[in-house]
Amino acid sequence: MSSTSSKVVDIHTHMYPPAYVELLESRKAIPLIRRFPGVKDPRYVILPAEAEALDKITSGSDTAPTNLPGRPITTHFSSLAQKLHFMDTHGIDISVISLANPWLDFVASESAGETAKSINTAFSEMCASAPGRLFFFATLPLTAPPETLVAAIGHIKGLKYCRGVILGTSGLGKGLDDASLVPVYRALAANRLTIFLHPHYGLPSEVWGPRATEEYGHVLPLALGFPMETTIAVARMFLAGVFDAVPELRMLLAHSGGTLPFLAGRIESCVAHDGHLVREGRVGPGRRTIWQVLKEQVYLDAVIYSEVGLKAAIDASGVDRLMFGTDHPFFPPLNSDEQGEWESMTWNKQAVSKALGADSEGARAVMGGNAVEVLRLYEEEQQAGDEA
Amino acid sequence: MSSTSSKVVDIHTHMYPPAYVELLESRKAIPLIRRFPGVKDPRYVILPAEAEALDKITSGSDTAPTNLPGRPITTHFSSLAQKLHFMDTHGIDISVISLANPWLDFVASESAGETAKSINTAFSEMCASAPGRLFFFATLPLTAPPETLVAAIGHIKGLKYCRGVILGTSGLGKGLDDASLVPVYRALAANRLTIFLHPHYGLPSEVWGPRATEEYGHVLPLALGFPMETTIAVARMFLAGVFDAVPELRMLLAHSGGTLPFLAGRIESCVAHDGHLVREGRVGPGRRTIWQVLKEQVYLDAVIYSEVGLKAAIDASGVDRLMFGTDHPFFPPLNSDEQGEWESMTWNKQAVSKALGADSEGARAVMGGNAVEVLRLYEEEQQAGDEA
Question: Which positions fall inside the Amidohydrolase-related domain (chains A, B) (predicted)?
Answer without folding.
Answer: 115-377
